[in-house]
Amino acid sequence: MEYETPLFFRVMAYANEADRDVVDMVSGNPDWDPPAALREGLREYADLEPDAFQYPPSVGLRALREEIAARRGVDVEQVVITNGAGEANYLAMARALERDRGEEILLTDPVYPYYPGKTTMLGGRPAYVATDETGRLDPAAVREAASEDTAAIVVNSPNNPTGAVYPEKTIRELVTIAEAHDAILVSDEVYDHFDYAGAFSSALGIESNHRIVTNGFSKSMAITGLRVGYAVFPHHLVENARGRHMLVNVATTRPGQYAVLKALHETDPDYYERNRERLRERIDAFTEALEAAGAEYTRPEGSFYVMARFDGFPGTVENTFELIDEAGVAGMPGSGFGDSREDWLRFALVTPRVEEAADRLAGYLG
Ligand SMILES: Cc1ncc(COP(=O)(O)O)c(C=O)c1O
Questions:
Q1: What family is this (predicted)?
Q2: pTM score, whole prediction
Q3: Which residue puts its alpha carbon closest to atom 16 of ligand 1?
Q4: Domain residues of the chain, as ranges?
Q5: Mean of the per-residue pLDDT values for the chain?
Q6: Whose CA is nearest to atom 14 of ligand 1?
Q7: Which residues have C-beta within 8 Å of that of residue 52, sequence separation ≥ 6?
Q8: pLDDT of residue 1
Q9: Domain covering 36-266, topology
Q10: Which stretches of the chain drop beneath a pLDDT of 50?
């Protein structure tokens, strides 16, 4: 079996090699500061005793697990600290497939491309349920697609790439569908802090033995490079996940866990609100400029991506490269997120230059 290099690395490499100034809106790497306490935690760490430089418990530092468990209203035994939400998703999907209740993983279209990649890697079979044009998922469509062969339903709200935030009712119905088919709902909530209307609803709010929640600090604390995330499992599913995590990773970064814990203790809600405010401003500036350029676009309710469609210029890989060379703006081809958004491009609002980027797009395509 060959594993495909995610398209996103190809686009980033192309943008990096470009012979001109390029506004980089490819990746989900925040350009804003992590919490001050997180930086302090890392500084402090450098001077700790030698034992702090040795293996942490595989499942994660006890104090960090306790803090997460208290915040999320779950039992500490349910929490596994992972190498980002990415590993949390891998563990959750692997756990669903190894129950031998089916081989199919139901995903949405558009989809975060790592989900089909992991599904195939784990020997599962991806199947897709289309969202509506705003990115909302109709539970009736999921119910129709689900079968005896469904091992898991994997969803992400707030959503990358659509910006949709699923209402509580949707999450509740998805849990019910998972229960009815003896499957697992995997709810990836890594953008939970980027919820602009306060409409986000966590699957943890619904008691069930059929849901696994994944999350991480990459986005909320602007630390995609530190690799600290977690998964919350039902009690009866956690043991195997701990085993797999140990065999694959031994453990995840100890300094990262230490710094995240300090940041959780010492960061007040203002930090998160400032980040949301910055993004609200960027969403306004970018979409207003797209509007003026006559493009079609999405207005995210959550996460930090905008999808745009330009008449006669579909979001293919070739056109993405052309925009890098000719307009000096790098986005992601919509085709990377499934069939339904092939005409679209996705732009990550991780640069202060969003207005300039939209003007460049308008100048080239308008
Ligand atoms: C939907 C989604 N899940 C998971 C991840 C990976 O997050 P982490 O850095 O915590 O592994 C990302 C990163 O872009 C994402 O968009």
A1: Belongs to the class-I pyridoxal-phosphate-dependent aminotransferase family.
A2: 0.97
A3: 160
A4: 7-34+269-365, 36-266
A5: 96
A6: 28
A7: 45, 254, 255, 258
A8: 63
A9: Aspartate Aminotransferase; domain 2 (3.40.640)
A10: none
